[in-house]
Specification:
With about 575 residues, the protein is an alpha/beta fold. It has three domains: about 120 residues, no CATH class; about 150 residues, Reverse transcriptase/Diguanylate cyclase domain (Alpha-Beta Plaits), CATH 3.30.70; about 240 residues, EAL domain (TIM Barrel, Alpha-Beta Barrel). It is about 55% helix and about 15% strand. It contains 20 helices and 16 strands. The strands form three sheets. An eight-stranded mixed β-barrel has the order 8-9-11-12-13-14-15-16, surrounded by four helices. A five-stranded mixed beta sheet has the order 2-3-1-6-7, with helices on both faces. Strand 13, helix 16 and strand 14 form a beta-alpha-beta unit. Helix 5 packs antiparallel against helix 6, helix 6 packs across helix 7 and helix 11 runs parallel beside helix 13.
Length: about 575
């Protein structure tokens, strides 16, 4: 495909388009000239063997003239018409007698050839111009002036077909906060941002890459003769360029970018595969909260597995394949069981357990979260009636902002006839801050039911004292990252101590997650932490195993646990 030429100045030159086109243009030109020469020769022979120019056959020479008009427009048609006209002038009027044509005869024929060739060439030239403009328009994103995804697919297809012994690199650059600008200033501002980012990237990559607008928030960079080192260097340069502030509609802003890139291999089948790989890498970087990521085949396998799992969730619920496992919480003041956390597991037909990290992040983004949360709540309430302390469950941002979630809680609590105080809902900071206003309203409604509400993974999100002060929370769960270095880092101990004191100042029950050693346990006791949870005490257990663990702990095994803790060994 040729580089689209817009009425206005393109933001960058596309050397890749031109280089790829030049390789095939010579071959096409040679083939066309050969066809025209053959047609002229065949026409000349037909005229000669049918007796000469006195008959109607000279008009067969208009065929190569019309064809030249279609391929080379006006100039080609006129040159072809003039050439065949002169050739016919050399043909005798009568081959049998050798009688020559009168000058007026062949001059009139030459004029006719030129007239018809000129008309045909002009028409084909206008048609070709209209098609070229239409084709160019279809390969250009009208709002930004950049080549679009059609241009990208065609260029990639040509590059993969030609190969030339080179490796193609494809990088996707996603503007993650473009939705905020779209909502605030509208579509024109978001397009202006894309164009500004493209201009900046054009200066960074210079002639090394061609830039495309793949969709609203995504730009694609196509590089030839690439390797992982080249792409990583380009990724770092692109991210550095993105750090600079931009002015969009007189408003200063900083665009947040996330990148993914991939390289073609001999096994790369088509352009769409390469595009898919680059976007998979970009989404992996986003999910891992990294700035960029290179594609590795394991990403695709994991993505396919996740898609398959999501498709099977509803069937799994209907087939009773899901179950809740429970991890105990230990009161550090008296070393008793004070509750547990319910954690969902998916048992496959072969008995293998799938842990929530493999499917819940995807489920939380779909309407499937509603039946899954209902199942978890029902199981937790049933368990809460039979074990010491309460049961806590995790709730997603989608649950929190769902008006039907509160009503479901109310209905299930009434149905199970369990005191609402024995159920606690754990909400991550990020879920709460996704919509602090509606999230706060939901927390108050949950607390009005008598259900406890705790902030999970506290310290890894926004950690705003402002929302803690105004929300009717019942507890804080300190993330395991603050526990893991307690024995070796004095600063970690001071920080955790401050967080515990802050929680107590707000009247909250403070729980530490991820306790794995006796040393961590002892430090948490010294710091005044209320509860602890972790592998030191027990992993999450199936219902029957958890009930037996609690029975052993409460009736005769408590002293054994104390001995385990004192010796520094884990259970």
């Amino acid at each position: 495909m040729s580089q689209p030429i817009m009425p206005h100045q393109m933001i960058y030159p596309s050397n890749i388009h031109k280089q790829w086109l030049e390789l095939s243009a010579g071959a096409q030109h040679t083939l066309r000239l050969t066809v025209l020469a053959v047609l002229v020769a065949v026409g000349w022979l037909i005229v000669y063997f049918t007796g000469g120019t006195a008959y109607a056959y000279p008009y067969l020479m208009l065929i190569p003239v019309i064809l030249a008009a279609a391929w080379y427009q006006l100039v080609g048609a006129l040159v072809s018409a003039f050439a065949v006209g002169l050739l016919m002038a050399l043909m005798p009027l009568e081959v049998a007698t050798g009688e020559l044509q009168p000058a007026a005869n062949w001059l009139v024929r030459l004029g006719l050839y030129l007239l018809l060739g000129g008309v045909a060439g002009g028409l084909f030239q206008r048609l070709h111009a209209a098609r070229r403009y239409s084709r160019q328009a279809s390969y250009i994103d009208a709002r930004s002036g950049l080549p679009n995804y059609l241009a990208l697919e065609e260029d990639l297809s040509i590059g993969l077909a030609e190969r030339w012994g080179e490796t193609l690199g494809l990088m996707v650059v996603r503007i993650t906060d473009i939705v905020d600008l779209l909502e605030t200033l509208g579509a024109d501002a978001s397009d202006e941002l894309v164009s500004a980012i493209a201009q900046r990237l054009g200066r960074v990559v210079d002639a090394r890459a061609c830039i495309y607008r793949f969709n609203g928030p995504e730009l694609m960079l196509l590089l030839r003769s690439s390797d992982h080192e080249v792409l990583e260097k380009v990724a770092q340069e692109v991210l550095s360029a993105g750090e600079e502030n931009l002015v969009i509609q007189q408003m200063p802003m900083r665009a947040q970018l996330v990148l993914g890139y991939t390289l073609s291999t001999p096994d790369t089948q088509n352009a769409r595969q390469l595009i898919h790989e680059a976007r998979v890498a970009m989404f992996e970087a986003s999910n891992q909260q990294r700035s960029y990521s290179a594609y590795v085949p394991a990403y695709r396998k994991r993505t396919m597995q996740a898609i398959w799992l999501i498709s099977q969730v509803r069937h799994g619920l209907e087939a009773n394949q899901f179950e809740l496992h429970f991890q105990p919480k230990i009161s550090l003041a008296d070393n008793t069981v004070c509750g547990c956390e319910g954690l969902i597991r998916w048992r496959q037909e072969d008995g293998q357990l799938i842990y929530p990290g493999h499917f819940m992040p995807k489920v939380e983004k779909t309407t499937l979260i509603t039946p899954v949360t209902r199942f978890v709540t029902e199981q937790a309430l049933t368990m809460a009636a039979n074990v010491p302390g309460g049961v806590s469950i995790n709730v997603s941002a989608r649950n929190l902002l769902d008006n039907d979630f509160i009503e479901m809680l109310r209905m299930l609590i009434s149905k199970e006839e369990v005191p609402a105080s024995r159920l606690e809902v754990e909400i991550t900071e990020s879920a709460l801050m996704a919509d602090i206003k509606d999230g706060s309203r939901a927390i108050r409604a949950i607390r009005d039911l008598g259900v406890g509400v705790s902030i999970d993974d506290f310290g890894t999100g926004f950690s705003s004292f402002q929302y803690l002060r105004h929300l009717p929370l019942s507890g804080l769960k300190l993330d395991r990252v603050f526990v893991m270095d307690l024995e070796s880092d004095a600063h970690a101990r001071k920080l955790l101590g401050c967080m515990i004191d802050m929680g107590h100042a707000l009247g909250l029950v403070v729980t530490a997650e991820g306790v794995e050693t006796r040393g961590q346990h002892d430090i948490l006791v010294q710091l005044g932490c209320d509860q602890a949870q972790g592998f030191l005490y027990s992993p999450a257990l199936a219902i029957g195993d958890y009930e037996r663990w609690c029975d052993d702990f409460m009736h005769g095994e408590r002293s054994a646990l104390s001995l385990e803790l004192e010796s520094g060994r884990t259970l």
